[in-house]
Amino acid sequence: MLDCDDLAAVRHAGLEALTVARLDTDDIGENDVAMAIAQRLAGDHVRAEPPVHGRADLIAETNGLLVYAPDGIGKLNRATEAITFAAVAPMTPVRAGDVVGTVKIIPYAVPRAELVSAGQVADGCKVRIAAFGPLSVNLVQTSLGSVSLKLLAKTETVIRQRVERLGGHLNHVWICDHDEAALTNLLADSSEADLVLIMAASATADREDVVPAAIRQAGGRVERVGMPVDPGNLLCLGWLRRRAVIGLPGCARSPLRNGV
User: Fold this and answer.
1) Which of 16, 113, 189, 202 is deepest in the core (most CB within 10 A)?
2) How many CB atoms lie within 10 A of CB 17?
3) MoaB/Mog domain: from which residue to which, for each copy (predicted)?
């Protein structure tokens, strides 16, 4: 909005004419619209930043997973072409301070009726963070003659860092032979944890392989062998005493992004 100081600056600069946009009586300025929509979208652990040039960012206030209904965001973007919203993909891990979404107003102003209509849609598609909670993890690595101590140490470091990024901690770390009986005994006797990770010396090929067989022998059940992701498809998921047991694929030894 131009005020007297702006006009004085224009005259001082020697300008004779300005091209401006004049708002209708029921128009709402772009910054006010951006903030109104952003505040309605902001759910748990998400805040709306003050708008600039018709743009208001949504900021994560904690570490966790980004959660929202994509269909709801699509409906908001169809409500009026004047109001747009883009967000990071749902279920993406985010950290406190990350920009997780942006409201951008296309014109300089929006009719009040369009803002009211879009605001009602925004009320139904909150963007929130499912915060990471405390997580204790046990790690078991199996070893064959070809597996070096250096590789085992590197794997522990990578997995420890990955767990800590999710707000958890490694409770215990064990190494045993890549043998069904040895792994069964360790699983049966291991201390309580929220999650057990198994990095086998040899990838799991089927339900009769060492990791799924040991889960069953320890009194657990195997949920699935193999996952539709790449890399990371040789993953085994099971349950033992109400806690998840995951037989990790070989790619979990790498710090690079993968199916784990």
Assistant:
1) 202
2) 6
3) 156-253
Q: Is the pTM of this model over 0.70?
A: yes
For the chain, the first-to-last Cα distance in angstroms comes to 51
* Backbone torsions φ then ψ of 258, nearest 5 degrees: -155, -175
- Would you call 219 helix, strand, or coil by DSSP? coil
Examine the pLDDT at 1 and tell me if it is beyond 80. Answer: no
Tell me, what DSSP letter sits at residue 228?
A: S
Contact present, 138 and 191 (Cβ < 8 Å) = yes
- Give percent of the chain with pLDDT exceeding 90: 73
State the amino acid at position 212 in one-letter form.
P
pLDDT score of 123 more than 80: yes
Burial of 73-92, coded b for 16+ CB within 10 Å and e otherwise, reads beebeebbebbbbebbeeee
Q: In 3D, which of 85, 12, 1 has the Cα closest to residue 42?
A: 85
3-state helix, strand, coil in the chain (%, to 5): 30, 30, 40
**pLDDT category, 190, cuts 50, 70, 90?**
low
**Over the chain, what is the mean pLDDT?**
92
Residue owning tokens 């997995």: 159
C-alpha 128/C-alpha 61 separation (Å) is 10
- Are the CB atoms for 143 and 175 separated by under 8 Å? yes
**Can you read off the two tokens belonging to residue 153?**
């140490």
Q: Which domains does the chain have, with CATH numbers?
A: 24-131 (3.90.1170.30), 135-253 (3.40.980.10)
Take residue 43 and report the two structure tokens written for it.
């759910």
Per-residue tokens: 179: 């043998």
